[in-house]
Description:
Ten copies of one chain form a homodecamer.
Chain A: E1 2-9, H1 17-37, E2 40-46, E3 51-57, H2 61-69, E4 77-86
Antiparallel strand pairs in A: 1-3, 1-4, 2-3
Amino acid sequence: MLFAVRMTVHLPPDMDTDVRTATLAAEKEYAQKLQRSGEWLHLWRCAGRYANLSIFDVTDNDRLNDILWGLPLFPYMDVTVTPLARHPSDIRQQRV
Amino acid sequence: MLFAVRMTVHLPPDMDTDVRTATLAAEKEYAQKLQRSGEWLHLWRCAGRYANLSIFDVTDNDRLNDILWGLPLFPYMDVTVTPLARHPSDIRQQRV
Amino acid sequence: MLFAVRMTVHLPPDMDTDVRTATLAAEKEYAQKLQRSGEWLHLWRCAGRYANLSIFDVTDNDRLNDILWGLPLFPYMDVTVTPLARHPSDIRQQRV
Amino acid sequence: MLFAVRMTVHLPPDMDTDVRTATLAAEKEYAQKLQRSGEWLHLWRCAGRYANLSIFDVTDNDRLNDILWGLPLFPYMDVTVTPLARHPSDIRQQRV
Amino acid sequence: MLFAVRMTVHLPPDMDTDVRTATLAAEKEYAQKLQRSGEWLHLWRCAGRYANLSIFDVTDNDRLNDILWGLPLFPYMDVTVTPLARHPSDIRQQRV
Amino acid sequence: MLFAVRMTVHLPPDMDTDVRTATLAAEKEYAQKLQRSGEWLHLWRCAGRYANLSIFDVTDNDRLNDILWGLPLFPYMDVTVTPLARHPSDIRQQRV
Amino acid sequence: MLFAVRMTVHLPPDMDTDVRTATLAAEKEYAQKLQRSGEWLHLWRCAGRYANLSIFDVTDNDRLNDILWGLPLFPYMDVTVTPLARHPSDIRQQRV
Amino acid sequence: MLFAVRMTVHLPPDMDTDVRTATLAAEKEYAQKLQRSGEWLHLWRCAGRYANLSIFDVTDNDRLNDILWGLPLFPYMDVTVTPLARHPSDIRQQRV
Amino acid sequence: MLFAVRMTVHLPPDMDTDVRTATLAAEKEYAQKLQRSGEWLHLWRCAGRYANLSIFDVTDNDRLNDILWGLPLFPYMDVTVTPLARHPSDIRQQRV
Amino acid sequence: MLFAVRMTVHLPPDMDTDVRTATLAAEKEYAQKLQRSGEWLHLWRCAGRYANLSIFDVTDNDRLNDILWGLPLFPYMDVTVTPLARHPSDIRQQRV
Lengths: 96, 96, 96, 96, 96, 96, 96, 96, 96, 96
């Protein structure tokens, strides 16, 4: 089941440098592991903003919630979630 | 070059039935032709709304503009465009 | 899987009376059938507004989308969809 | 009498860990006590956000106000309140 | 139980004059009857706008909903509802 | 002359406890003095929020401004002001 | 007593030409009469928009309300009203 | 003196075809004449929307207002105006 | 050339008292000097808010920008700028 | 390929003076280097605000993203990006 998620990050300008570096590294590792497992289907930077647009393919809402709450940057994020369904004009036969 | 486009459709409730049917058929054909050509990369329904989230892969802004203005439903749409860039945590090596 | 859906209805003041009566009757029958089948879990009026807050229990996003697009009043509605997950402080053991 | 309440939580990233832990534990205990007493009817996580959607069943506005002001997380919350009424298409005969 | 209700009226400029006159007369009679019965406690014009701020004193949400849906101008209104509770600094001892 | 004023309070979570206690006590005394003098006509809590809806009866805009700027909590408030006029359907003959 | 009023006009594109001409002429006459009487203190066009910013000097809210409701273009306007008070840095000694 | 102007066009879907064609032709001629005279400095399409971003170089606010009110599409436009000033990091020595 | 400027001030509650006093005194002196020179034409308090509505009469956008950036309270302000033009119903013959 | 970018800067009032001075100097140098290279085509101050409107001419979205993320003031900015296309009424034959 697909969800579009937009994450906007607000890091405090006075954040401790070590904490910041460690958090960003953990975020990257976390994002890449989920991409490899197939649940984090797409990850794009919104050009010129500290924000991304992501597509998740998960079993249900609970799993999506667990993934997003597990993000190391979650406490610094605004998140919007849009559940996606199959579009009748989509040419691909497989379910979205 | 990738763009996320969100289209929300507002058809007048009193729209002529034939015009409506013809417009929707033309829209579907238009959308499927561009999916086959590779420029309309993804097309998802926003669940429960007359809206979609699409990803386009085009050569430049002018081409994106031409595609969207060519949509048979364009006069009935609100459109938002988000240019996408490669995300540093994206595991795929190819450029977006 | 649960979703909160808020529907706000905008009927044109000059809507044909017969069409209006028939549409409202069809809407009521549709809503009650889905409540009986267990997919439309809750249906509340937002006091003093032509709007409702509903909770749906469906298998996935596609089913939610089909239900909402099938509403006889769908062409007259603004709809917002919020996917729900289990809350860690919820005392009920069954998954939402 | 039913009310839909949406609570969005903003904890300061630099909140003292002990205060945070104690406040969250108190919040959980408070929420569960009110669920057991029957006033906090439903408690759902808005998937992927630090927010919940709750349904309260209380005697009047004053009681709702007392409950919400008593939340240990209240100073960190944005709250919206929607009074609910019985919907004419609701199949349940009991009053909401 | 008190509620603050803000009603904003949008009459179509091309509304039939007789319908308009009859609707406005019915609205006035309806509003005055409810003021005399004590349920419509206050009725103020928002200066310079086709809008009012009203205070209702009703038994519950269902009664408020019935009153507002019964307004002859209801199909032309945007309505916002704010449930009110007793303020700890209010000098009047009687319950709000 | 009547004005509806909505005040929303944002106290910093880390506010000094003594300052907070003293400010809230001063606010209460200030509000009650103005209620007794007749200028602060109504004071209601917006249920479940740190906000109130108030009605002031003052001689002019300057007096309203002085009263609001004198609030001990003024530096922590968002304030909206709506000037009120007599409504043609108001059954009370006295001027508002 | 001064009020800043911003009026934004939305004339239907298909408005009858004669009605339009007559309404605009009446609006101009109305505005100029009130400027001459001293109640409509300033009238500025918001550059490039069908909108104006006006300053009124009236005895009270009721008078302001009567003036604005009397505008021939009132049914086509969005209006916002801001009550003004004397500013402590204003060099003019006379009351605003 | 420079101004950024964003124009968003809303043509009614049922607009008469001849009126539409004539209005668009007049708009184009009007826009090109002002570009040639040097007052309409830049004219860009906002990609994928019926909107443009324009830069005007005019003597004063009155002239800007006259130009925008003279647009054949003006009755169908939402317009926002941003006055521009010289930026201290602009490398061009001439005043904007 | 006239501009309407709305300034909303947000002073941090924990601002150093001396800095605050000095900044406010500098702001007052600055505002009064520009009123005397004729460039700051009107200065009104928005009743009940830490905000003002001002009218400036300046030679061009650059001068307006210099004046506003020079405000001692500028770092604490939200500012909106509306360029004003002569209104066709304004009875005064002099240009605005 | 052209993009309109609006940057709004929020510097913390208590920012260290040396850091502030160094950051602003680096920002100026960065902006001027990119203007000289031809990628930062226009840079205008939004009059009276700590904001600018810029036009960039870059090869693609990735390059735009790199430029904006490289801004020394980027952590303090709100940024909006509008991709621009050739307007059919633009008199210049060269591609935008």
